[in-house]
Amino acid sequence: MMVSRSHSLRPFLLSLLVVPALASKALHLFQHTHSLSPLLLALYFPTFFVLEILLFVVAWFLLNRTYGAKSAIGAAIVGLLGCITLAAASSQIGFYFVTGAEVRWNAAKSVGDDPEGRKLMLSGLKPVLCAGLFLLVLSWLLASGITSVMNNWFAAVTGAFSEESTEQLPGANQKGGSGLRRRGKQWTIIAAAVVFALWLVRPSDPYNHISGALPLSIFYALLVNPSSNVDTSSSSFPLPDLLNPVYWEAPKGHYRGWAPTNGESLETDDYPVTVPEWASPNLPRGFERWAQKSDNSEPVAALESDDEEETDDYETQYYDPVTDPLRITNLDHELFEPLQQALKEHDVPISHVVLVIMESARKDVFPFKSDSHLHQKILDSYEDDEAADEVNAKLSRLSPVAEILTGESSGFPDHEPNELVKDFWNVTSRPGMGGINVNGMLTGSTLSFKSALVNYCGVGPLPILNLFNKVKDGRANSSEDSQDRMEAIRNRKWKTMFSQSITELYDKQNVLNRKMGFNQSICREHLDNRRSKHYHSGMEAINYFGYPEVETYPYLEDVINDALETDSRLFLSHFTSTTHHPWGTPSDFDRKHYFYDDFLGTHDDMDHYLNAVRYVDHWLGKFMNLLEDTGIANETLVVFVGDHGQAFHEDSPVSGTYENGHISNFRIPVVFRHPLLPRLQVTANATTMSVVPTILDLLVNTKSLNQKDTNIALDLMNEYEGQSLIRPFQSQKNGRQAWNFGIINAGGTMLAVTSAAAPYRLVLPLTKDFEFAFSNLEKDPDEEHIINEWNLKGLLKKVKNEHGKEAAKWVQDAESIAKWWIEERKRVWNYHETV
After folding, report:
1. What is the DSSP string of 382-422?
2. Which member of 30, 644, 703, 789 lies 3.0 to 4.6 Å from 794 by CB, making a disulfide possible if both were Cys?
């Protein structure tokens, strides 16, 4: 009986391996059909299944051993491989159903290693389970058929016997069996020879990637780092003519000059390497470059100790703006004229700085605008004008707070944003005032924490504020006199606080925050602590990371009041998270349908997202009103910046930010809000690398720093790659372009490249699993007609044919600059690959 049961189980074990593996390959091929020539796809089609066939043959032999221990071990191995393949194929299908993208197993392992990351993965469990159940049933139904086919093939080719010595395989005893075996062998040999020849002559890219087979691709991804598609072995700058000494710039004041030397250190009489006078003992962490010993002097500063300081055998490298071939500064230009005039007419005190980073904040919803690409997609889902009028009425109320913050009109008729927010935000700024809104901004990374590094640090430290504190003697006294009061404010010490309503444990965000210089934080772990001041039962989690932002309100109020009571200056960073997948909102929130509610739920994700946008817009209004209620609104600079955008199926074939280079993942809002600053609309094709230099520039020019801090800020402003956004942005200089680079989630696989001097955009693959992508944002701002190619040569040919020689030349420059930039980032960040 045991033998019979084992024998009946083996066809199912074989089918459990075959069906999911072939389903995975079918999906894999489907996802790449758009990028392959139909002729070449047909020609090389047999080669795509070589690994699967070899795997199935091995599995068949393992299942057809004589009974006993070897047979049981063989069945166990095939069963284990089948279960792994079933789970992996189900994950692939489920992931594709949700995002339209492919699973990258090495990235999945990285996320799965994090306890909070596993919650993220489990959020998509339903489609995975449905796919798994379907494949399981299909494997059961096809088990006998698959086994019969393989048995007959082996019988025809080898005449082999089955595991029962008294019974040959089907076909082995047929009339004319020897002829059948002979023909079977001949055709098998011919087919194998043809496939082998095609395998040898086909290009490695992308066909090696397409030929990957489950579960082998999982084992390979987990054991081997993905191979690079980019040769970055040369560290020489690819456009040396732009570095001619005739273009060099002499030092002047706090500006150290520009004399690029392909990354080599430079110290001459004209460009001396000096230690600034503020580099006193006990510098905060992050200022190591100013603690270094010069050639003829002893170290001038000792760094604070760090319990987690790591040492290695490599020489520490730092970013040097003097020798950076790409750096273009605009600090030698005057402030925008309206800003100059306003600063002459009245004081604009900045006692506190608040940096609000908004999760998945697309620029086209901050604010949502009539006649935008997204607006048209919504209208297209309706069939009659009456329904369109109704949805327009709802859309006009989607983002009134964003309209006020940016000064941009939504464009809907009969619409007054101040009336829409009066119940929760008492707006006190006068008409024509409110600060600087920047259009054209791009994120430096579509992964939140990498984006945070760009927003907070650039290539320098957020502990700038700790440095300001180091040079102060103590707490300043308050005064009623306006002049004395401003002087007192300038001499106060800074407190740094980070707040969010979600966990800070995901991807070690708590460690990152501390390293960047935050002294305190509010997060889900704090909200969940029963000893917390404002803990209460019944808090409603809206996603796998935590709670709605409103749960932080009483804590933020305490933080502000504490700063006022202790005469401290506050640097508060607040992260909004409701607009993160799965875009949940509190149960009592009045959800709206914006897209037509079809049976298939085609637009459900975007609908959820737009509701989350409306919720966060309301929250931002309440947050701004908190500044009003605590009396600090008129002396607080509030910077609003998106961490990245968010692509949906309405934008591109692939939704989400994961390994998706679409432009909708990159366009973000950036606003510098202050009620006493004039309303300015600025256009700058730049990344958020410019946020910190702009904050420093505003602090200096509003005279919100004392003399010591001002000198430090002026020095540090000239250390950043980014330009200041309150001065005319320089898109090019002496042939050099202001290049922008964007790291695509999760990093290490693709890099987005743009230039402020051209409308073109390149997505560069860093591994062999991805294609090159080119777009002309001037002609195709929403990237509906992207040019894809698996190699640079093919891409250049297509770009030249469709967009001309100038565009093709730009692609060549962008590709070479990006390769150099990758190696330069490794050097600057002291990244050393381990073997």
Report:
1. --SHHHHHHHHHHHTTS-HHHHHHH------SS--HHHHHT
2. 789
Q: Characterize the bridge pairing of strands 636-642 and 670-678.
A: antiparallel
**Each residue's pLDDT tens digit, 273-317:** 777 888 876 777 777 777 654 444 444 444 454 444 444 555 677
Q: What is the DSSP secondary-structure string of 711-724?
A: HHHHHHHTT-SSPP
pLDDT above 70 (res 831): yes
Q: How far is residue 442's CA from residue 204's CA, in Å, rounded to a whole number?
A: 34
Greatest CA separation found in the chain?
112
Question: Backbone phi, then psi, for 680, in 5-degree steps?
Answer: -125, 140
In angstroms, the Cα distances linking 554 to 118, 143, 219, 444, 780 are 30, 61, 49, 32, 46
Tell me if 285 is assigned to some domain.
Answer: no
User: What's the average model confidence in pLDDT over 349-371?
Assistant: 96
Q: Which of 667, 683, 699 is the last residue of a domain?
A: 683
Instruction: Say yes or no to pLDDT of 446 above 70.
Output: yes
547: number of Cβ within 10 Å: 22
- Same structural domain for residues 219 and 350? no
Last residue of a domain, one of 203, 223, 243: 223
Query: What mean pLDDT comes out for the span 532-544?
Result: 93
**Domain at 510, CATH number:** 3.40.720.10
- Return the closest-CA partner of residue 827 out of 256, 237, 250: 237
Any domain includes 666: yes
Hey, which residues does 752 pair with through a beta bridge? 742, 763
User: For the segment 209-225, what is each residue's pLDDT rounded down to a tens digit?
Assistant: 888 888 888 887 777 66
Confidence class of residue 164 from pLDDT cuts 50, 70 and 90?
A: very low
Instruction: Work out the percent of the chain whose per-residue pLDDT is above 70.
Output: 85
Q: Is residue 451 part of a domain?
A: yes
- If DSSP codes are grouped into helix, strand and coil, which group holds residue 652? coil
Q: Which domain holds residue 190?
A: 2-223
All residues at 6 or more sequence positions from 734 whose CB lies less than 8 Å from its CB, including other chains? 242, 247
Are 684 and 440 in contact by the 8 Å Cβ rule? The answer is yes
**Residues 6+ away with beta carbon under 8 Å from 442:** 666, 667, 668, 685, 686, 687, 688, 740, 742, 752, 754
- Say if 242 falls within a structural domain: no
Q: Which residues pair with 758 in a beta bridge?
A: 755
Q: Is the pLDDT reported for residue 631 higher than 80? A: yes
Instruction: Please give the tally of structural domains in the chain.
Output: 2
What's the CA gap between 454 and 437, in Å, rounded?
A: 19
Give CA–CA dist 87/745, Å, rounded: 24
Angle at 12 between CA 7 and CA 13, to 5 degrees: 90
- pLDDT tens figures, 727-773: 999 999 999 999 999 999 888 889 999 999 999 999 999 988 889 99
pLDDT band at 467 (very low <50, low <70, confident <90, very high): confident
pTM for the predicted model, two decimal places: 0.89
Shortest CA distance to 400 belongs to which of 384, 411, 386, 387?
Answer: 411
